[in-house]
Amino acid sequence: LQAFFSPRLLAGEQVLITAGPTFEAIDPVRGITNRSSGKMGFALARAAREAGAQVTLVAGPVALATPRGVQRLDVESAQDMLGAVEQCVPHASVFIATAAVADWRPAAVAAHKIKKDGTGQLPQLGFIENPDILATVAASRRAQEGALYCVGFAAESENLLEHARAKRQRKGVPLLVGNIGPATFGQDDNALLLVDEAGVQELPRASKHALARQLVAELARRLGAARA
Ligand code: CTP
Ligand code: CA
């Protein structure tokens, strides 16, 4: 029924989306992660599917149902997420990175549960920087040749516009979508700032589903312009 009412703005597009947090193991029972419910990415996957796209959703650990008609690949760590994304990039025409990827992972994963030794001594954790999935995809030949349109997201706690502009440049993507957290994390609504080469556009506070539909329409407009 939904398909009947939705204009097929993304018909013929292969949309690849990352969503949710990543989980980086410390030992078999512990790890570090980021705050992300995955709701924005899942809402986008649903909206893109309803707009006629083929959608693949690479999801970190989240408690959300897979939107109808969407192919979902579950992953845990940033490295797993990059691996899954790289498998899909050759077929994708749009890449949307909504995932809150952990920036660092423990340098070594303990094979067994780290035990308190009774003396109050603390475990010493070293960290390694995780690969930047969005920057890697944006630098790929497909993206550089214009066959893959890349969209980044940025959740900031302050100076949203300034950070979003800088991040768009740094990641090398045509469109970066900003939002202010942590108040919106896990919530059903949000407000977005779209930053592209031409300037800035605000999508005022609405449900994540409504925003996802607006974002799909904006994306279709930019894809049309990019391919004209
Ligand atoms: N991203 C990614 N892989 C990473 C880190 C970020 O794909 N290792 C993507 C996110 O999915 C998002 C965008 O890059 O689309 C911006 O993420 P963000 O965490 O805001 O940017 P960072 O470059 O990690 O900067 P910082 O966390 O220091 O603000
Ligand atoms: Ca980050």
Automatic annotation (TrEMBL):
Cofactor: Mg(2+); FMN
UniProt name for this protein: Coenzyme A biosynthesis bifunctional protein CoaBC
Region (Phosphopantothenate--cysteine ligase): 15-228
Cofactor note: Binds 1 FMN per subunit.
Binding site for CTP: D103, K113, P131, D132, I133, L134, F153, K167, K171
Residue intervals of the DNA/pantothenate metabolism flavoprotein C-terminal domain: 10-220
Gene Ontology terms: cellular component: phosphopantothenoylcysteine decarboxylase complex
Source organism of the structure: Comamonas flocculans
Residues of the full protein shown: 180 to 407 of 415
Reactions accelerated catalytically: (R)-4'-phosphopantothenate + L-cysteine + CTP = N-[(R)-4-phosphopantothenoyl]-L-cysteine + CMP + diphosphate + H(+); N-[(R)-4-phosphopantothenoyl]-L-cysteine + H(+) = (R)-4'-phosphopantetheine + CO2
GO biological processes: coenzyme A biosynthetic process; pantothenate catabolic process
Pathway: Cofactor biosynthesis; coenzyme A biosynthesis; CoA from (R)-pantothenate: step 2/5; Cofactor biosynthesis; coenzyme A biosynthesis; CoA from (R)-pantothenate: step 3/5
